[in-house]
Each structure stands twice: as C-alpha cells, then as structure tokens.
Amino acid sequence: VNLRIPGPTTVPVEVAQAGATEMINHRGPEFAALIARTTEGVKKVYQTQNDVLTLTASGSGAMESAVVNFTAPGDHSLVVSIGNFGDRFANLVKIYGGVLTKQEYEGGQAADLNKIEDALKADPQIRTVFITHNETSTGVTNPVLPELAALVHAHDALVVVDAISSLSSIEVDTDGWGLDVVLSGSQKGWMVAPGLAFASVNERAWARAEETASKQPRFYFDLKRHKDSLANGQTPWTPAVSLFFQLDKALEMMFAEGLEGIYARHRRIGNMVRDGVRGMGLELLADEGVESDTVTAFWLPDGINGSQVSKIAREKYGTVFAGGQGNLTGKIMRFGHLGAMTDEDIQAGLDALKSAFADAGFKG
Amino acid sequence: VNLRIPGPTTVPVEVAQAGATEMINHRGPEFAALIARTTEGVKKVYQTQNDVLTLTASGSGAMESAVVNFTAPGDHSLVVSIGNFGDRFANLVKIYGGVLTKQEYEGGQAADLNKIEDALKADPQIRTVFITHNETSTGVTNPVLPELAALVHAHDALVVVDAISSLSSIEVDTDGWGLDVVLSGSQKGWMVAPGLAFASVNERAWARAEETASKQPRFYFDLKRHKDSLANGQTPWTPAVSLFFQLDKALEMMFAEGLEGIYARHRRIGNMVRDGVRGMGLELLADEGVESDTVTAFWLPDGINGSQVSKIAREKYGTVFAGGQGNLTGKIMRFGHLGAMTDEDIQAGLDALKSAFADAGFKG
C-alpha cells in the first residue's frame, strides 16, 4: 500500500528495521548515548540551540504540553487558526482555562501579519500566540513566521508554533526567526513511526514555565521534568525506545541527503502534485503562493463522492489518500507528499488519483 | 545484552520484527481491524468485559489518565503506597488538586486490608482509592486485591489499580475482583517495546468521569475521547502504529502459551530467583508470602557498592540489573523476571549476578 496521506508517512525499510534493534535499559549508558545523539540531530533540523525535549506521545500531546507549560488559567492567549489543527490549539487553550481570542481564516487562506498585530493591539493582555506553521487540513503553509516573533515579542508575548507537518520537510529556522516554542512529530517528514513528539523551548519560554508551575497542573507533559532528566541522559517516564532507534537511523539518512536537498525535493514534489492535480481539472484549496509542500488539498467536483474515490484508490490502485477534516469533511481530498518520497512515488500517486477519479465518474 | 530489569523487557525477535511491518493509515480499515483485535486480546488478558483503552504513552501516562478522569479538584482520595509507584499516585493526586490521605508502608511490606478500611472510615469523604498491584520498586505483590473492591464499594468509592508490572505475568481477574479501573503498560509482561499503555474502565468509573468532566481539564488523556474513537476503530490522536503491530504479535504468542502457562512460568522463575538470591546469602526486601513473581529486590550487604556490581554485571557479564529507586537508591538491587524469559535465562542471570558480586568483593 502506498500512503499518500499527510502522516503517518512511509517508514523506509532501514528505519523500520532499526526499530527492531535489541531492547536496552532506558536508564543505562546505551540509552543516554542514543538520546544525546537523536537530540543533537533533531536540534540540527530545528536550527536551534534551544532545549529540545522528546515526548513519548503523538503531536497532539506536544500541543497539550505547550498549553499546560506556557499558559496558566486566566492567561490571555491568541490562537491564529487557518484550519483544523489551529482549532485544536483553541480547544486546548479553553480546556486549560485560558481567555481565548481566536482569529479564524477561511479554509485555504494563510494568516495575515497585520491582522495578528491588530489582535495583539486589541487585547494588550495577550501573553501567548499559538499558530500552525503548516496546516495539514487545508494544505497551506503560513508565510508569516520569519516576521512573527519580533511582532509578538514587541507585545511581550510568547510565540508557540505547531510545525508538526512542516519541520524536517520545509525549512523552519527556529533561532533565526526567534521562535520561542516549536513542536513537531515523528510520523511526518522525520520518516519514523508515530509515537514521538518534539518541543523546543527557549529561555523566554522556560521563564514562563517557571511562572505557571504553581498555577497549571502538569505531570506527564511537564517539560521541565523532561529537561532535568535529559541532563542525565534519560526521560522522566519510560520512553518509546524502539522509536528512538528508528529516529536515530532516520536522522542519519536525512543528513546523508542534506537538509537543503530535502527541502528542495519537497518543493519539487509539491510542484509536481499541484501541477498534476490542476492538470486533472481539479481546484486547489490553498490560495496561490501559500500552498504547502507537504500536503495538497483540493475540492471535490460536483457529483464526485470523495469516500468512493478513496475506496477505489485504496482497493484497486493500492494508494491511500486522506479525506477532509472538520467542516471540510466530504468536500475535499488531500494528497500527502512528505517524508520518504521520490518523484516516481509522486507520479504513481497522481496516476492512481486520476484513475480513481475516472472510475468514480469524473469526466475532467 | 540480557535485560534483567523490571521493564522494558526483552522483546522477542518475532515481536520486534512485527513492528517493522509496512506503515498503514491510522484512519483506515486496516488499523480498525488491528485495534479491534488487540483490544479483544488485551481484554482477555485483563479478564474483563469493561472498555479497555490503549494510549500512546508510557505507564505514567496511564496513571495520569486515571487521576484526571476519575478525580476532580477537591475530591478526597486514598493512596495506598507500598513504594515508589504508590508515591507517584500520591504525587499525581496532589498535583491535580485532590485532598490526599496517603497510607504508607515500609519497603517490603504489603498493604493491609484492615488498615485500608480504617482509612476509609476515618474519612468518609474518600471517593477514590489508588493502589499498586505489584510494586516494582520493592518487589512486592499486594495480596489484597480480590477483597478490596467490595470493601471500597461499600464506602461508595472507586478503586484504581496500577497493574503495570503484574498484568500479563501475574493473574489479575479484573471483573471477578470487581476492579473499576486497571492500568498496564506494553513494556512489561506484554513483551512489547515501551510506548503503549492500557486502562480498563467499568460503568461505575465512566459515571465518575462524566461527573468530573466539567471540573478537571483533560485532553490527550481524556478516556471518553478514546472510547468514542474506538467505536470507530480509531484513536483520538495518531497512535503508535508500529507498537500496535508488535502487540498484535505478542498477544498471539501469549495465547499460544496460554495464560495459565504464563502465570505458572512466572511463579516458577520467581521461585528460582528467590532461591538463587537467598542461596547467595542475600536478603530479600519483600516480606515472606508477598514476594513478587515479576521482580525481586534484595538488600546490598555491608561494604558492597550496588553501582559497581551493576557495572561489572553489565560490562563483564552482559547482564543488566536495576538499582534502587527513591529512598532505596544505593541500598538495594533489583532483578526483573517478567515477560519473555525462560528458566535458562534466569539461571544465566543468577550466574551473572553471583559472579559480579564476587568480583565486587562479596564473600557470601
């Protein structure tokens, strides 16, 4: 089966096999060496000198960790939502007692720096800004990150970035852009099975975590505990050791290809998918210029049932696409093109998509 | 390297290899079939008809889930602690705003049903009782579980059991004993790499979860969300798919051996370890009659440095033992004997232990 969904992505055979390495003691010297090595590698991909903590959880766990470590009940937060995963931040902020300003965009639109500034001016009490770098549900990459931190810091707030489906496929210059907290997850461009999530934390964010410590309960996702344990080559709770083995191998493969090469490949295959989908007569969800290089969302034409197309693609052509999420369910389909993927894989995916659409009655 | 620690345990080659199975869509029919099968298998081992939810987290995450789903701030809880993992429940109850009665026992002692009843009578407001079935830090199995639920229910409270290091190695009759919530973790007797945790929940506990929903914030560990997703063959957040593959294979191996056979084997190798350790002139921590069949803790004799013994065992004899935790650090050592372990493995472990002690200057 060919996975053309925006995660979990195909795990290369070498990476999958690395996960079968003989189990080790998570409190011994072998694990200490392993987590030191993977942390160093992940920091390199993040382009950061900040602490990077590895959680045994999926990306949603990392999102929860950001909310429970960097906000306290009653704190004002701005969530910039361009889709389903932005909505998840908004949901988390409300659940954990925050006072929420939610700035919403139409599906396919990117965030606007001026509107973010307006929101910050409208509520000077906003202390944290949550934003999605690459919105998996709409296939949009927010272009505002390089300028965002300076703006947010001028209002004395923190910026927390969900880079789960971009980091390792699309460049994120954590330190160059001054991002306080950046999240990612193993099952995306990292080419690792799901179950590990990452959070980078800078000094400004640690100061906030110290301030919220007595106000916001946290335990499993307490990032300070992870930082303290990491100093001893450990994690506070038993880590998903086999996924660390996979990550170690995947990082080795990534550095062999080179980060610039990986980003260039994702730009190229992103273009291939967009050209291919448009060539079929389908319309992209994303506005021009902000299309994601890891996932492409397109509208279902009138009279075409997306579930049927997906079923045909899976059963007849061995290729798995994703449907819409939230209010886009039944209206769009999504083609994931991140991680271990070649031009040939993309061409095969486009061929399968075209055939499945034709079988479902689409005249193009 | 031979792991003789109480988890992560040795992952059999067939199980490790199953984890390298080609990645699948976690929202597709293959995963739905997989989680249906593993859930059925885990329920069989639990001996329960209750819901069993599988979390992508380590056992500590399952412990947090019990506290945030079944207690609200201000609720009175009794934690029966016979060691480090009982203390973890107490810590969690305090962090999440509970009013805590902590009943502590000396290291090596088991809980006493009469004392638990005294504590329930002393505070009629106690609504939840937390207890460790098998205390990994001291090598003690609490014998009170079969009678406990009736006692706790008579006081209109819930009982939550940490069976992380017992379930699948030592019998836990969840429904027969009337246990409301029971927790376990993949990296113990289940023979799977770390990263999955289980929680069984009965009707009584679900009613409590509904009651606390508006009072206790929760998201990643919200068990109701897991229950709702499971009805659709999914998990609310991306699951650790490769560990589900491993679990599927491990359950197949467990049922091939038979649960009675597994329990008998653990009783036999537990006896072997105890006889072997005592035969070396070492003294067990556990009181007679409550020794654990999954982990044996023993006192370090005067003048013997446990870290040195462990280092020699690891480097010279390729065998990894565990040290003490919490206030037992430096005072005891621990020999794990759970999961994929034969009589020959145990004998080899005892030989390595004896040699390492001799090398460290122990005269016996």
N-to-C SSE series of chain A? EHHEHEHEHEEEHEEEHHHHEHEEEH
Rg of chain A, Cα atoms, Å: 20 Å
**Widest sheet of chain A: strand order?**
2-10-9-8-5-3-4
Give the quaternary arrangement of the chains.
homodimer
Indicate the percent of residues in helices of chain A.
40-55%
Portion in beta strands of chain A: 15-25%
State the distance separating the first and last CA atoms of chain A. Answer: 26 Å
* Number of E strands of chain A: 14
| Largest sheet composition of chain A | 7 strands, mixed
Low-confidence stretches of chain A: none
**Number of helical runs of chain A?**
12
Structural class of chain A: alpha/beta
The most extensive interface between chains reads: A-B, 56 and 56 residues
Report mean pLDDT of chain A, rounded to a whole number: 98
Protein described:
The structure is a homodimer of 364-residue chains. Chain A is of the alpha/beta class and 364 residues long. Helices cover 42% and strands 17% of the residues of chain A. Chain A has twelve helices and 14 strands. The first copy, chain A, has helices spanning 13-18, 29-46, 59-70, 84-95, 113-122, 145-154, 203-212, 223-230, 241-257, 259-279, 306-317, 343-359, and strands at residues 2-3, 51-56, 76-81, 99-104, 126-132, 134-135, 140-141, 158-162, 181-185, 196-201, 295-299, 319-320, 322-323, 332-336. In chain A, the strands form four sheets. Chain A has a seven-stranded mixed beta sheet, sandwiched between helices. A three-stranded antiparallel beta sheet of chain A has the order 11-14-13, covered by helices on one side. In chain A, helix 2 (29-46) crosses helix 9 (241-257), helix 3 (59-70) packs across helix 4 and helix 10 runs parallel beside helix 12. The mean pLDDT of chain A is 98. At the A-B interface, helix 1, helix 3, helix 4 and helix 9 of A face helix 1, helix 3, helix 4 and helix 9 of B.
